[in-house]
Each structure stands twice: as structure tokens, then as C-alpha cells.
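Researcher: Let's do a round of design. I'm pasting the C-alpha cells now; please hold your answer until I've finished.
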């Protein structure tokens, strides 16, 4: 049975069963492992394809988890969605005097309190690390209120998420300045 499970896992890891699903190696690996466990009678768990984090590893990384703003509006209606956003300047950009308009964070939430977080989009250094950390919170049903009550680690890029206060709806400039 181990040989069958191993062969099946290899087949699944190559992405043969993932039409319409995230084409990511970790996703395929987890889905294959869960399938093998079900086939061997060790578990009944199914793969959860919601809120799978991903990152594009370019010189300026982009990471996301959950719904995009457009998906959230389509699913819940514009009047029920609140989007918090900000440009920020990471510590690495200060010494090199790089433009802070390159780094951007967007958190998509339900508008009704406690404002369940539906998605996080992060453009900047360490986006993969930041996205991975917040993915757990989003999968566990984190709210905007809980994120705002989280003490950020200074000076990290992830801290910027816990400082999001400006909504798109407000029309205010999303540029954050200083330590605040």
C-alpha cells in the first residue's frame, strides 16, 4: 500500500489532478498527501483550496492570500466590503533612499464588525514571509479588529499590516509616513 500511495503522490505532485486549482507545488503535495491518507484509511480530510497563499519572487516580491478586492465585491457586494491600504517605506529602502511608492499593502475585509479579513495583498521585500504568516490568521478567521490589536515587530515589513488604517472608501491618501 505504501508503494501505491507513493506513486499516487508523485502523480498528484506533477499537477495531473489540479485543473482549476492553484498550480503550486506545496498545494499539490498537501493534496496528494491527504488523498493518499484517505485511500489508506488513515484520514478523511479533504484539501481546502480556499485561502492558499502564494508569492511571486521577483526583485520586488508580491504575495497574496484570500480574495482579491474584485472577488470580494462580486461575492459580497461593494457596500459590504472595506479595503484598507497603504504605501510604505521598508527599512531597506531608507538607507538606499529608494522610492516608497513601490511598496503597497491592501487588506480586503467585510465591512460589518468585527470585519473578517477576506484577503491580503502585499508588494514589497519579504512578501512571501509576510504572506505566509498572515495566511494562518486568515484561514483561522482573523478579523481586522484582531489584526489592529496585534503588536507589530519594529522595524519589519509585516508590522506595516498592523498599521493599516486608511480605507479606499475614505478617499484619503494611502501614503504612510514615519513610525506610527
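Researcher: That's everything. Go ahead.
Model: Designed sequence:
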Amino acid at each position: 500500500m505504501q508503494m501505491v500511495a507513493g506513486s499516487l503522490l508523485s502523480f498528484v505532485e506533477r499537477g495531473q489532478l489540479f485543473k482549476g486549482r492553484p498550480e503550486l507545488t506545496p498545494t499539490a503535495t498537501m493534496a496528494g498527501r491527504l488523498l493518499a491518507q484517505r485511500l489508506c484509511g488513515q484520514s478523511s480530510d479533504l484539501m481546502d483550496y480556499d485561502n492558499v497563499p502564494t508569492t511571486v519572487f521577483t526583485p520586488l516580491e508580491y504575495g497574496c492570500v484570500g480574495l482579491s478586492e474584485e472577488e470580494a465585491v462580486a461575492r459580497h457586494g461593494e457596500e459590504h466590503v472595506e479595503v484598507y491600504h497603504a504605501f510604505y517605506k521598508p527599512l531597506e529602502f531608507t538607507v538606499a533612499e529608494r522610492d516608497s511608492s513601490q511598496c503597497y499593502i491592501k487588506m480586503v475585509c467585510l465591512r460589518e464588525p468585527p470585519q473578517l479579513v477576506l484577503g491580503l495583498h502585499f508588494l514589497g521585500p519579504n512578501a512571501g514571509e509576510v504572506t505566509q504568516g498572515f495566511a494562518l490568521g486568515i484561514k483561522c478567521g482573523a478579523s481586522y479588529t484582531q489584526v489592529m490589536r496585534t503588536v507589530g515587530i519594529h522595524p519589519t515589513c509585516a508590522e506595516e499590516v498592523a498599521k493599516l488604517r486608511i480605507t479606499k472608501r475614505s478617499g484619503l491618501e494611502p501614503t504612510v509616513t514615519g513610525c506610527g
